[in-house]
Protein: Beta-glucuronidase
Organism: Nothobranchius furzeri
Amino acid sequence: MFRVLCLFAAFKAGILLDSGMLFPQESSSREVKELNGLWAFRADRSPTRNQGFQRAWYKSRLAETGPVIDIPVPSSYNDVTQDPNLRDFIGWVWYEREVVVPARWISDGKTRVVLRVESAHYYSIVWVNGVKVTEHEGGHLPFEADIDGLLREDPTTTTCRITIAVNNTLDLHTLPPGSIQYMKDRTMYPEGFFVQNTNFDFFNYAGIHRSVLLYTTPKAYVDDITVVTDFLDSTGLVRYNVSIQGATLVTLKVTLIDKDGHCVVSSNDTSGVLKVVDVKLWWPYLMHENPGYLYSLEVRLNAADGTSTYEDVYSLPVGIRTVKVTKNQFLINNKPFYFHGVNKHEDSDIRGKGFDWPLVVKDFNLMKWLGANSFRTSHYPYAEEILQMCDRHGIVVIDESPGVGIKDIRSFENASLTHHLEVMDELVRRDKNHPSVVMWSVANEPAAEMPPAGFYFQMLIKHTKVLDPTRPVTFITDSNYARDKGAPYVDVICVNSYFSWYHDPGHLEVIQIQLNTQFENWYGKYQKPIIQSEYGADAAPGFHSDPPVMFTEEYQKLVLRDYHSVFDQKRKLYVVGELIWNFADFMTTQGVTRMVGNKKGIFTRQRQPKEAAFILKERYWRLANETGRLPLWTKYPCSH
Ligand code: GCB
């Protein structure tokens, strides 16, 4: 108990942002109106990409400024038209939608109306009726603005015009970083030619990628909830803190409700510890017969000011579990947990990185079919709806920041570090309560050998641990242990390696020896548990060759087989997980090493299995049978 109290004190002190970012939900006191569908859209094709600001496109209807097209939200804009210039567009694009706001939201002065964007890549500015309401840097996390004051300026009208300008340009201090290169040689390039350079291996899809919505709360409302869980024997401990905005005089009731709707325990304090007798712990998929058990923490607030009374109700799903790391184990609820999972991307045909429920559900069904118990949100935070699915299904998550491709020494400067720390604030604020999230990953394969990298990662990891001392922190490294400056600070070593692919291409016979050396070096130096956070090989679906050659399905299978044989030796010692690169084929920048994208998926981009998927399925179910306690139906996975 003392441990939970201490952890929580630090957790609370760590959150530097001054407001919460609770997922919008309907309740007896809250309404949600999704603004998804078709928006008017115009790319600013002027040479400076600045015409929209010079001519103040936000001041009138976008269609009055020039030609507009329909673009769906949520979706990347890149792949939905036939225009090659829009596919590769760099700079500002403008979205606009007129919205009818329920009249009572405006007339009822006790109601707060919030405009929220779940994610827009990369930099966004938002106007309502021509008035700027917010701007936000970063392509993968939500931002919002209170707009009821603005709506009430003209209470006679219930329509409002929302304009969102989004810029996908990446520079040395954005996350991920990039740079714009102008080609000035007129014998080689046309006037105004420039390219966006990046050091990451996925297409820089752009636009409004997740939902845009309006939601209401009363003027006095539950702004944030933080829970930290623990257990002692059969008693669960839920340490909680509720923060409130808009009122000082409140009464509060906090009730923990089980899955059957029974009230388990309640309290009237804004913070405290709830004791749960005969607790049902949150367990990962395939580790327990009843994975993903969630309670619901209902927070009911009553407040009053001089003239009005307010009631607000918010229900937070709560999974009670612990995460700990020893020198050679990763423990969930004090039991060794072995990650047998995948790396993913938010990526699909046509939609690009646009959120899409059918895709999300298909991916979960494929992961469960595969016997995967975990994934890593390579290389940026995923939609919160995906984490909610993980909570419910018991799929364990390594939650990664967009710190990918940090390769230029200037991207280690203070401006970058400051922004990276802010992104971690936003990430932890959004995802801190998800039981499925068991570890933070602050970056992927940075140039860790560069002199400033040590300081940069020390700061980043320390900061993340202050934000959340309850979860381990890592960054993802490549296989060169000798030059790594950040590894001393991480809790778990996460290593990516591509033996017989980028090194010694075509030589399957080197895999086992090189992988063994990799593990021995890392463990010998740091004595920390190790996850193989990426390995794999490209396979063009339908390409076959025996004896196997690179890019065939046979070669991909054999790479997996050789990696697995070393994993099987080391997982008895200190290797605590293996995550295949990648779950599915995905789109990349065009280049000579990529044939219509990265083909290391074990599923195609359309989510059909390659032969490697069956190898992995057989292995993951075997691992689950060895290490977990499977529900009855899962003993016969083939029938599902
Ligand atoms: C990596 C990167 C990942 C790439 C992968 C590859 O190390 O982390 O983003 O897609 O290798 O296939 O090259």
